[in-house]
Sequence to fold (375 residues):
Amino acid sequence: MVTSNPILFTLICVFAVQAMILSGLIAFKRPRRLGNIFLALLVFFYALMALNIVLVNVLKDYGMLHVFRYIQMEMIYGIGPTLYFYTKCITNPKFEFKKIHYLHFLPLLLEFIFYRTAIYRIGSDGLYLEELPTYSYVYLTQQWIGVISIWVYSIISLVILTKYQTQLKEYYSKIENLSLKWLQTPILVFVSYHFIWRVITEIDRFVFDKSLREYYFLPNFTVLAVIACWIGFKGYLQKEREVVHLKPPEKKSKNTITEKDEAFLSKFKQLMENQQPYLNPDLNLAMLANLLAMKPKPLSSKINQNFGHNFYDVINSYRVEAFKERLQSAERDKLSLLGHAYECGFYSKSTFNHVFKKITHQTPSEYLRTLKKAS
Fold:
């Protein structure tokens, strides 16, 4: 236990309760989506974890700690599966939750039952004794397995998100409003939180004899409550978007030399020179396929085969060339660098700077200075 801190208790309660309210709003958000249910559960589980700490310490102050051992509601085994299924839902509109998927939540049920047993009560109380009883090791093992579960599910979720980002670039030339990168932040934060938390507590337990708990215990749960509130707020504001998912083109063997389709390249380049569709920031694969009288999937394969890059990179390379041409024209001083970028089809400053430097190995400002020196 730690010394009660009314200020931190209040902060934890405020943010945790707000997170729970947001989880309810997300669950009943219209249109009703399966993904919203899992996001609501994820936020709720984290908020519940923070509130648990306040409850246990308040009951301790009133000499009612024994009551808490019967109402413990921490549910760390539900965090990983809810994060995983939420990620599946928002990256695959056709995902269906089947009966077999309930097996992922079986450990959560067992955890709930475990907290109702004497093994838990004796084991958790034994943590405050000089010599840990056997049941305390059982309790600690259960906690560590729960943390490992969160790590595993989080890593899998990050892999799914990374593949999703790659898929977007096969179909869209503007992905700012479609990207789910905002979800990567809380995943990384939650994984780091549990890792750092467990490492610190174990170091404190075995090296400093729990003398450091006053400095990190409640502040950590305050941060957790704030993060849970933030992800709930961010998730509630997210708009539902229908994304067309294409299967990535088959990878060619490194030893296989693929011949370029000169007819396709000629037709593609002629379209880009004459109609300049890349100037449209909303250009996507379906729109380009329509202009070339092709279907999206074969076009995606043709682009990867002939350019060695995906649709996103190819279209943005044309935008970079258009930008460079504008800087070499008489119109250079009529607009700012960002203004020229927008005229060339870019949608955001960050994307423009990233793409430009990736292609030219210079920032736009450095490129302009080089032009001025050369002229």
About this structure: The first helix runs from residue 6 to 27. The chain has two domains: 6-237, 262-283+311-374.
